[in-house]
Every structure is written in C-alpha cells, then in structure tokens.
Amino acid sequence: MSVFGPVLERARAAKRVVFVTGAGISQESGIPTFRGEDGLWRNHDAMKLATIGAFEENPGLVWEWYADRRKNILSALPNPGHAAVAELERHVSVSVLTQNVDGLHQRAGSSEVLELHGSIIRTRCTSCDFAQEIPSGLPGSPPLCGCGSMLRPDVVWFGEELPQEVWSEAMSIASGCDFMVVAGTSLEVSPANMLPLQAKRNGATLVEINPDPTPMSSEMDLAVREKCSACLPELVSAFESRN
Ligand code: APR
C-alpha cells in the first residue's frame, strides 16, 4: 500500500500540482537546513548574517558567509526528491514555489520554479536594479556595481518583503491548484507559510512531507512522516499509473 494511499484518487484526478518546498528537500544533497538539530540558525546568529542591517553594519562578514554557503551549494547535486518533482512534469502540470535559494529544483529539470526568497547564485545592486548570476570565482568582499553602489546576495533577508510580483504570482499559483505537496519546510516563516491555507481555501488537497510535524500538520489531508527522497518517487508512480 502506497504511503499516498489516502489521497491516491485525488492525485490521479489532479490537474495542477504545486510544491511548496524548503531546506529539507535539499538536506539530502548535503545542504544544511536552518532549524533542524544541525541547522544553520543553531550555530549562526541570523540577525548578524541575514538582515539588511547586518549587511550595512558588516558587509564583508555577510558577503563571506554567503560566499561560503554558495561554494557548498554549487558543489551539491540534486537528489531523488528534486528529481521526482521534475519527473512529475511528464504526467501533470507542476509548479514549484520554493523557499530555497540553491537552484537545485532547476538543476534537476523543473521548469516552473518560483524562488520566493531569491537566489544565492545571483547578486543585485543595493541601489539600482542591476542583477547578475555570480561567476564561480568571487571577490573576498562585496564588489561595486557600475553605478558605484555595493552588490549584495539576491536573497530575501529577515525583515525584507518578498518582491511584490513574486508574492502575487505565488498566491495565484497556490489558489489555482487542486493538489499541493508541502515538502521539507518547517512552515515557520511567513509569508510562504500562508500558501498551503490559500490552496486549501480554494479546494486543494494538502500533503505534507516531513519527518517531523509542523505547526500546520493538522490542516493537511495527509502527513507523510518520511524524507523527501524516500517517498517523492512513489508519488510520481501514483500519477504514472493514471496514464
Ligand atoms: N525530507 C523532508 N523534510 C526534511 C528533511 C528531508 N530529508 N530533512 C529535514 N526536513 C524538514 C525538517 O523537519 C524541517 O521541518 O525540513 C524542515 C526544514 O525547516 P527549516 O530548516 O526551517 O527550513 P525552511 O522551512 O526552508 O525555512 C524557511 O527560513 O531562514 C529562513 O530564508 C530561510 O527559506 C528559509 C526559511
């Protein structure tokens, strides 16, 4: 019996599937999560590394920390969880709303990925709208934009708003799906954690994939207490068997 047994029929009937993903789906690619026992925020002070105030106060420290994370991310590979999400596109319309900045969904082959919290692979100017993919070799401190201002990692820091167009697109995607898989996220951070309820309000079936419960587990139609790479390939076969 598949772990997705209780929602199999709804999976097979689904027209639009949306994934809301977090650090947990990349954990098996060797990228640390934020709040698990070995999470980044256990050993680093987010307020000193992931806020605009921290960057203004000590741009070199923040830049160096992101450069370090980026090195690890660029050497990481997508895992079977990412691959299953990409594979599902062969059977049904799939959108990925990810909080991750690692680009692994895209590298696994997913074509509809919305990066809610930006991308560590990109920098943007602190004052004009210049942005660029970061070459592998990085200067030790934040380089200057052609306009003379400092460049920063193109990620959303604590206390910063998501880009308006990204958020409204995410809300409309969540509202328009009939099956949402919430995978590898603690759902601790807003506004991303509002997306499952938005989908549910519009009649979607909600599935949570997480070894641990989250504050929204009781809202889920099914909670699969497994790691992403262990069960997501099984979800693909649920959709395959409908063709
Ligand atoms: N498969 C599925 N879930 C997993 C796995 C796995 N292999 N490993 C860990 N998890 C779960 C953990 O139980 C946890 O609930 O993934 C979740 C990771 O939670 P967080 O570390 O809080 O990461 P995330 O939810 O993505 O954080 C959201 O917070 O710090 C900010 O901007 C940062 O985007 C991040 C946001």
Blueprint (SSEs and pairs):
Elements: H1 8-13, E1 16-21, H2 23-27, H3 40-43, H4 46-49, H5 52-57, H6 59-75, H7 80-87, E2 93-98, H8 104-108, E3 113-115, E4 118-125, E5 131-133, E6 151-155, H9 164-175, E7 179-183, H10 195-201, E8 205-209, E9 222-224, H11 228-240
Parallel strand pairs: 1-2, 1-7, 2-3, 7-8, 8-9
Antiparallel strand pairs: 4-5, 4-6
Bound molecules: adenosine-5-diphosphoribose.
Q: What can you see in these coordinates?
A:
By secondary structure, this protein is an alpha/beta fold. It is elongated, with a radius of gyration of 18 Å. The protein contains eleven helices and nine strands. The strands form two sheets. The protein has a six-stranded parallel beta sheet with strand order 3-2-1-7-8-9. Strands 5-4-6 form a three-stranded antiparallel beta sheet, covered by helices on one side. Helix 10 links the parallel strand 7 and strand 8 (205-209). The model has no long low-confidence stretch (mean pLDDT 95). Adenosine-5-diphosphoribose (APR) binds at residues 22-24, 27-28, 33-36, 39, 99, 117, 184-186, 188-189, 209-212, 214, 227-228.
